[in-house]
Design goal:
The chain has 301 residues and is α/β, with parallel strands linked by helices. Helices cover 38% and strands 17% of the residues.
Length: 301
């Protein structure tokens, strides 16, 4: 089976591999500070999702730090002037805050020639007109792609309540349509293995995404990681809900890729939780083994 991966799509567009730089906007989350709820989604650790440079640093300083982190992955034959990057603001809610402050931060990234695109992780209930107007202005000013990454996780509202997501499906749907009308690239995150969901429930979310009009620009497919210090860890300790085996996860991913329309770009087929925090599934800690198995299964499907 042949799929469109983001790595291949970016290489076609820019003529070189494009690397992700994990950055911080210093934003919080309305599901933590009480505006919507407290404690955040039950799977989310205190640091949000992902590793990133300290928000104490300026964006330019963060970019330089992040470039040093990824430097070892870049072939030495690629001159510094030809290297391209995605400025990826992943953790917490990166459209939750003062539009002027965020506009200055994101401008700092977009004005750098090596930054090919800006990617913002956020929630569908944190996209007011002031933020969208600011982002539309940046897109027009710099002529670069701005990706909005929405954490849907599941289409099932019963699961959404259980994981304390803080919004229901109609909120996602209205924000999604608004973003597409504004011309933004939209990437949807979904999680496999949320407690209480069957394999068919998980595939229902994939079918739902495949039927959205217009289609999402991309998807990130993610395994649930039960991490120390989270509400999910407490639930796992108390109930021992089923966590996916590697074979179950690979089967779900292969089936999902067959369901998704060909024009949806695959940004991720799995991820890895911080090993120092990972409780389950233990097999996911061996990322290289998991990726090799996934790639083999996809190639053979």
């Amino acid at each position: 089976m042949k799929i469109r991966t983001i790595s291949e799509e970016l290489k076609k567009k820019y003529g070189t591999k494009v690397y992700r730089l994990s950055l911080s906007s210093g934003c919080s989350c309305p599901n933590r500070d009480g505006r919507i709820g407290y404690g955040g989604c039950t799977f989310c650790s205190e640091g949000g999702s992902g590793d990133y440079a300290s928000p104490v640093l300026s964006v330019n300083e963060q970019i330089e730090y992040a470039k040093r982190v990824v430097a070892g992955k870049i072939p030495g034959r690629i001159p510094e002037s030809e290297r391209k990057y995605i400025a990826y603001f992943q953790s917490f809610t990166n459209t939750y805050g003062d539009p002027d402050r965020l506009g200055r931060l994101y401008s700092e990234a977009l004005e750098r020639p090596e930054i090919a695109a800006l990617s913002l992780g956020t929630r569908p209930d944190c996209l007011p007109d002031e933020i969208l107007n600011m982002l539309t202005g940046l897109k027009k000013k710099y002529g670069k792609e701005i990706w909005i990454e929405l954490g849907l996780q599941t289409m099932h509202d019963e699961t959404a309540v259980r994981i304390n997501r803080g919004y229901l499906l109609p909120t996602f749907e209205s924000s999604y349509q608004l973003l597409k009308e504004r011309g933004f690239s939209v990437i949807i995150h979904i999680i496999y293995g949320l407690p209480g969901e069957t394999g068919e429930d998980m595939l229902d979310t994939v079918r739902y995404l495949s039927e959205l009009t217009p289609h999402p620009d991309g998807v990130k497919l993610q395994l649930l990681h039960v991490l120390k210090g989270t509400k999910m860890a407490e639930e796992y300790e108390n109930t021992h809900f089923h966590v996916l085996t590697m074979d179950e996860y690979i089967d779900l991913i292969v089936t999902s890729l067959k369901i998704l329309p060909e024009d949806i770009v695959i940004h991720r087929m799995t991820g890895d939780g911080p090993k120092r925090l990972l409780i389950a599934p233990v097999w996911s800690a061996d990322k290289k083994r998991v990726l090799n198995a996934l790639n083999r299964a996809v190639a053979e499907a």
